[in-house]
Design brief:
With about 250 residues, the chain is mostly helical. The protein folds into 2 domains: about 5-200, Four Helix Bundle (Hemerythrin (Met), subunit A), CATH 1.20.120; about 200-250. The chain contains 9 helices and 4 strands. It has helices at about 5-25, 45-70, 75-105, 125-140, 150-165, 170-175, 180-195, 210-230, 230-245; strands at about 30-35, 35-40, 145, 195-200. A hairpin with a 2-residue loop joins β1 (about 30-35) and β2.
């Protein structure tokens, strides 16, 4: 029974690997004429890559739950979890950001002359994820809540990119702008390696007084999910950051 949580963790890794395969096997990226300009359309497999990252996130939640339920938490499980997370929520979302950069340059007149170096900033994201996970595993941080944004949260925000474009193609010109993609890469990477004190999402009790911000986050998340579809993910993420920073001393 002690290996059951590890099997869940390995399933997280499997979904992360499948996501990478989908993200890389995009086939031809299509351009469509819109008046005098060309509009890039995301290949469908990138969307599937994002979905598999979401599946990995679900399994990542369950493996910890199962480990606690079976009282099978171990040092090996902790290390294995981080190794799986760096693939599913570091490398896979980093490749999505790479594809977003690539597609943002495709619609430019000088697309064929785009240097590879212009796309390499996407690797900052998985590097930041690996650093954040290594710091977490070796840290004796004893303050309440998180220090910096957890890697799965940042990975899900990056993975929401193609799904947002699926439901809101009208904003493609804005969020596929190369400077916007660079900003997302830098912001998410910095948030992961930062020392910002962020709120824990675990309920130690269910009193309104001790969990006001958590209840507020849940309510906003439900409303956003109903109204905004996949755009809810970055909205909820931003709300979480704001609520955490309003009262950083009470992030337990």
């Amino acid at each position: 029974m002690k290996q059951v949580p590890n099997l869940f963790t390995l399933l997280n890794l499997v979904f992360g690997c499948i996501a990478i395969v989908c993200i890389l096997q995009t086939g031809e990226t299509l351009l469509e004429r819109d008046g005098a300009s060309w509009i890039a359309r995301l290949p469908e497999k990138i969307w599937w890559g994002a979905i598999f990252i979401g599946c990995a996130a679900l399994i990542d939640f369950l493996d910890g739950f199962v480990a606690r339920m079976l009282k099978a938490e171990s040092a090996m499980g902790k290390e294995l979890d981080s190794l799986a997370d760096v693939v599913s929520f570091g490398v896979a979302p980093g490749l999505i950001l790479y594809q977003m950069l690539r597609i943002s340059y495709i619609s430019e007149e000088t697309a064929l002359d785009t240097p590879m170096a212009y796309l390499l900033p996407a690797v900052i994201f998985p590097c930041a994820a690996a650093y954040r996970l290594a710091r977490f595993n070796t840290s004796d941080y004893d303050k309440p809540g998180f220090r910096g944004v957890p890697v799965p949260a940042a990975g899900l925000v990056a993975a929401s990119y193609p799904l947002i474009l699926l439901y809101y193609p009208g904003i493609a010109v804005t969020i596929l702008n190369k400077w916007m993609v660079y900003l997302v890469i830098i912001a998410l990477s910095w948030l992961m390696v930062s020392n910002l004190p962020l709120m824990s999402l675990k309920f130690k009790d269910y009193s309104f007084k001790n969990n006001f911000r958590r209840y507020l986050l849940v309510i906003i998340a439900l409303i956003a999910a109903l109204l905004l579809n996949w755009l809810a993910i970055p909205v909820i993420f931003i709300v979480y950051l704001v609520l955490s920073l309003i009262s950083p001393k009470n992030n337990a």
